[in-house]
Amino acid sequence: MSAAEDVTPVLHPDGWALLEALPPYDPATALGLGARLREAGAAPATVAAALTQSRLRAAARGKLGGFADHMLFTAEGLEQATRLPVAARHADRFRRAGATRVVDLGCGIGVDAMAVAGMGIAVDAVERDPATAAVATVNLRHLEHAVVHLGDAEAFPDGLPVPRPGTPGGTDAAWVDPARRRDGRRLKDPEQWSPALSWALGLAGTGVGSVGIKAAPGIEHALVAPGGPAAGWSAAWTSVDGDVVEAVLWWGAAAEPGTLRSATVLRTVPGAGGDEQVQEAGTLTDVGLGPAPVGPVGGYLHEPDGAVIRAGLVAHVAEQLGGRLLDPMIAYITTDEPVTSPFARSYAVHAVLPWGLKRLRAYLQTQGVGRVTVKRRGSPVEPEELRRALRLDGDREATVVLTRRGDERIVLVCDPLV
Ligand SMILES: C[S@@+](CC[C@H](N)C(=O)[O-])C[C@H]1O[C@@H](n2cnc3c(N)ncnc32)[C@H](O)[C@@H]1O
Questions:
Q1: Which residue has the higher pLDDT, 4 or 71?
Q2: Interval 361-385 mean pLDDT
């Protein structure tokens, strides 16, 4: 941790006051501002910490909106934190499950805990890193019934000062968002996460009524399948504006009975007063469909949302659209009609060509296309290389989709369907 990353100076009243008095962060003026503050007598460590927090607050706005302006961060804690609208959905699931006291086992800077406590549910937030726990304490300061404990989450339930599950007023739900990075690298093996996934799954046996475990979007479906280590749990994938942000394993009252897998698509939309809001476009639930039909390219192409693909629900979107796959192994759906779905991006197909740079270039030139968005599934061609190699100069835009049907490589030239 560098001196600037040390949050201690802003935990003191003079450091906090300096941070709160800073103008909105501007990287172009931050150095000069720092020099002026030091010349005016502020301690260098305090100035460094306040400017770092100011920069992190600005960086956090995308995840946390205006709340970021009243919070403290560690750089790592911000990177790992849940986006607030997604955290609000976790909290709402606990509310619907009837939870009254949630333990957050590895709370980081406290975003999930803030969302749960914001619903009026009591939270015990446990964090083992002292600086992160201090930051979480500041971030939860206005929320009644939220307490941060410095300690090892894996001591739950007996070794932590939290009300025992199964007792009156006891902890009735547990949330775990394990640390999934070490030394800046993502840890693929869930047993390397902290806490490890197998330990977190064991929370189902501690007497709580609901458990949620945030996991990587790439978790295996076999986990929740009958006979799998998380049989009886449901896995819920979520995307925000097309980015798959998480898969959460839910158990007990917080799980969807009988649902192994689901996909929720969230979108940012303009809200009141110029602010943005994140809204649910839809949730798709696994109803055990077989594989989607496969057939020829129609007039329309549909690219399923990443959450749908990760959840293995492409056949469900194909059925909803009345469509078919171009290839049984590739997640592109085609239809003859201009149908749309919240679970896919749709395009009108103008041409289907065998793959070949010269042929594609000639076609795009005849159409006056100068700018292309390149998408690919099942093609080795690098989109950036293709864009450069095309050397186009027309006025129109087009979406070029590189894919294949069996062994045949094809290119679809499309326009987004509005
Ligand atoms: C992914 S972050 C949590 C982010 C949090 N959900 C949020 O939205 O702000 C995981 C946190 O768990 C903490 N952690 C990992 N293992 C722990 C353990 N055994 N006991 C307590 N905290 C732990 C890490 O220090 C890290 O801050």
A1: 71
A2: 95
CB 250 within 8 A of CB 212: yes
Q: How much is the average pLDDT of 145-169?
A: 96
Q: Which tokens in the block code for residue 47? A: 């100035």
Query: What pLDDT score was predicted for residue 288?
Result: 87
CA of 77 to the centre of ligand 1 (A): 8
Q: How far is the CA of 346 from the centre of ligand 1 (A)?
A: 39
Asked whether 86 lines ligand 1 (CB < 6 A), one says no
Is residue 232 a contact partner of residue 251, using CB atoms and an 8 Å limit? yes
Q: Is the CB of 194 under 6 A from ligand 1?
A: yes
Report CA(350)–ligand 1 centroid distance (Å).
49
First to last CA, the chain: 48
Ligand 1: centre distance to CA 69 (Å) = 22
C-alpha of residue 107 to centroid of ligand 1, in Å? 5
Gap between the Cα atoms of 354 and 75, Å rounded: 48
Distances (CA, A) of 47 to 6, 44, 89, 136: 11, 5, 37, 21
Q: ∠265-269-273 over CA atoms, to 5°?
A: 150
d(CA 72, CA 354) in angstroms, rounded, equals 55
Establish whether residue 128 lines the binding site of ligand 1, counting it when its CB lies within 6 angstroms of any ligand atom: yes
Which protein residue has the closest C-alpha to ligand 1 atom 26? Answer: 108
Ligand 1 contact via 139 beta carbon (within 6 Å): no
**Using one digit for the tens of pLDDT, what is the confidence trace for 226-275?**
999 999 999 999 999 999 999 999 999 999 888 899 999 999 998 877 77
Q: What percent of the chain has pLDDT over 90?
A: 94
